[in-house]
Design brief:
By secondary structure, this protein is an alpha/beta fold. It folds into 3 domains: about 100 residues, Elongation Factor Tu (Ef-tu), domain 3 (Beta Barrel), CATH 2.40.30; about 100 residues, NADPH-cytochrome p450 Reductase, Chain A, domain 3 (Up-down Bundle); about 160 residues, Nucleotide-binding domain of ferredoxin-NADP reductase (FNR) module (Rossmann fold), CATH 3.40.50. It has 15 helices and 15 strands. The strands form 4 sheets. Strands 6-3-10-1-2-7 form a 6-stranded antiparallel sheet, with helices on one face. The chain has a 5-stranded parallel sheet with strand order 13-12-11-14-15, sandwiched between helices. α3 runs antiparallel to α4, α12 runs parallel beside α14 and α14 crosses α15. The protein is globular, with a radius of gyration of 24 Å. It starts with 13 loop residues before the first strand and ends with a strand. Bound molecules: flavin-adenine dinucleotide and NADP nicotinamide-adenine-dinucleotide phosphate. Flavin-adenine dinucleotide binds next to β6, β7, β8 and α8.
Length: about 375
Amino acid sequence: MSNPASLFNRKNPFPGKLTVNRSLCADGVGKDTRHYEIDLQGSGLAYEVGDSLGIFPQNDPALVDEILQRLQLSGDEAVTTADGGTASLRHTLTHLCQITATDKKMVEAIGARANDPELKAMAAEPERKEALNAFIEEREFIDLLLDYPDVGFSAVELVPLLRKLQPRLYSIASSQKAHPDSVHLCVATVLYEQRDRQRKGVCSTFLAQRSEVGATPLPLFVHTAKHFRLPEDPSTPIIMVGPGTGIAPFRAFLQERKITGARGQNWLFFGSQGRQVDFLYGPELEQFQHEGTLHRFDTAFSREQKEKIYVQHRLLEQGAEVWKWLELGAYFYVCGDAKRMAKDVDDALVKIAEVHGGKSHEDAAAFVQNLRATKRYRRDVY
Ligand SMILES: Cc1cc2nc3c(=O)[nH]c(=O)nc-3n(C[C@H](O)[C@H](O)[C@H](O)COP(=O)(O)OP(=O)(O)OC[C@H]3O[C@@H](n4cnc5c(N)ncnc54)[C@H](O)[C@@H]3O)c2cc1C
Ligand SMILES: NC(=O)c1ccc[n+]([C@@H]2O[C@H](COP(=O)([O-])OP(=O)(O)OC[C@H]3O[C@@H](n4cnc5c(N)ncnc54)[C@H](OP(=O)(O)O)[C@@H]3O)[C@@H](O)[C@H]2O)c1
């Protein structure tokens, strides 16, 4: 909870109004990362740069229809919701339940009803855990329903089988000092093919495809991230590494450092597929550089040449200067993909301490560990 003075929080989300929904990618490039602005007027909500915004999405009504149709239910059935209230099945499936991701409980229930030995064994035997995980990862709930067409559930049986629909977090991409009444986000729309079906990420497509500017209320709350704040001393230099949507909090940092007149130097490493493809906030970042808010700016466009160039390659190229900044007390920030990028950037940092700090590998790793322990190395990765 960020602002105790506000009535609104995760348990009582504020219905924000979407005011801007704009693509940050070129047309027809096969990816869609978007800039959103949401009006917070009347909420009393306060956020700091580095915080995230939680959004409660709605499921795709076409998928809700497909599930209802397959189970021969109308959607008008009254069901008991998780908080003990009563609602129609359609409302419950649209707003309250996770209807995409599959889990062990579903496999168990369908295995039992279909009397399918394979499903039953996967769900029951601990040594089949890996197979179960692979099975679950490749399937949504609708796949199970379609693959086992004789299995049925009544409305009352269906709801307890489904988990609660969770809010999604997004790094805030604006400074409230620059935008007192709104919050900005940078969100990659999750769309992919799996088992010959188009899959849609629940919240990112709710924002991109099923929310109307000025009309659809977005239930939201501020998620405080104390671990990802700017340095308390505004004269401290910062190095920011934010490829892809990882740029979001750094746009907010730059807005904040500009509006507060912070004297600390700012260095940004940004990476994406190509300058003409998905240079997220390219003109704004260049403007920050032009006006002197962004003192150093390195880009890594991964698909503009034969070999991949990523942010960690740029860090290594600039290793001597990065090391100098660290020696001057710079804070080092990383945001974006946790699975590969954050690990590779971490390795690059160790390498820089080895090569430019003259340390053994062990001492360099300890140096980076100490940066973390002293909170000069801050990450928000997902
Ligand atoms: C602190 C924090 C900050 C974040 N900030 C941002 C941000 O600024 N911008 C942003 O865009 N996201 C951000 N995220 C991620 C965001 O919260 C959501 O996880 C993301 O938008 C996906 O949510 P969704 O509901 O659209 O997709 P979901 O319905 O949750 O589906 C996502 C799931 O789909 C599957 N999936 C996705 N792509 C594929 C694929 N190609 N092949 C197979 N399976 C796949 C994976 O299982 C994945 O977990 C952040 C997350 C955290 C925790
Ligand atoms: N946990 C999550 O749910 C999660 C986290 C991050 C991203 N994503 C998904 O990924 C898609 C796009 O996300 P995004 O916009 O943040 O990033 P992105 O566009 O996929 O990637 C940004 C840049 O990072 C590069 N990159 C790939 N591997 C890297 C590595 N190991 N180290 C450094 N850079 C690397 C990419 O290069 P190439 O593509 O050319 O290799 C690209 O140039 C979305 O669908 C998003 O939801 C999901």
